[in-house]
Specification:
The protein is mainly α. It has helices at residues 18-31, 41-52, 58-67, 78-91, 93-102, and strands at residues 38-39, 76-77. The protein has a two-stranded antiparallel sheet with strand order 1-2. The radius of gyration is 15 Å and the shape is globular. The protein binds calcium ion.
Length: 127
């Protein structure tokens, strides 16, 4: 595989770039099946399986509930999801790239994988 230099996922302050955040939010919303703005255990499991091939282990779960933003039901919020990726990206950007590619994004953060989203974008998201 040729060595490509993808755009940075973080800015000078270590925050996720807008393009990166947009991609992650889209992934988050894909797995937030009931659209309550947070990932339940089942939703998080589905995400982890698609991303890593397996559900998060106990340690990772503990870290998530200990360090990341949760809603009052203990579910990982969108903010927490972005926090998780901010942490990972600052230490291991290549891991985040791997995850993004897994979810169909190319090295310029464009969604390239074909998804069945015909008629699936009618949801009116007004937060
Ligand atoms: Ca949810």
């Amino acid at each position: 595989m040729p060595l490509i230099v993808p755009p940075s996922l973080t800015d000078e302050d270590g925050a996720l770039t807008q393009a990166c955040e947009d991609a992650l939010v889209a992934i988050f919303e894909k797995y937030d099946v009931d659209k309550d703005g947070a990932l339940s255990n089942a939703e998080l499991d589905a995400f982890a399986k698609d991303t890593n091939g397996d559900v998060f282990d106990e340690d990772t779960r503990t870290e998530i509930t200990e360090f990341l933003d949760l809603d009052d039901k203990g579910q990982l919020t969108k903010k927490g999801f972005l926090q998780m990726y901010n942490l990972q990206t600052s230490s291991e950007p290549e891991e985040t790239w791997k995850d993004l590619q897994k979810h169909g994004y190319d090295s310029s953060l464009k969604l390239v994988a074909s998804r069945s989203e015909d008629g699936d974008n009618s949801a009116n998201k007004s937060s």
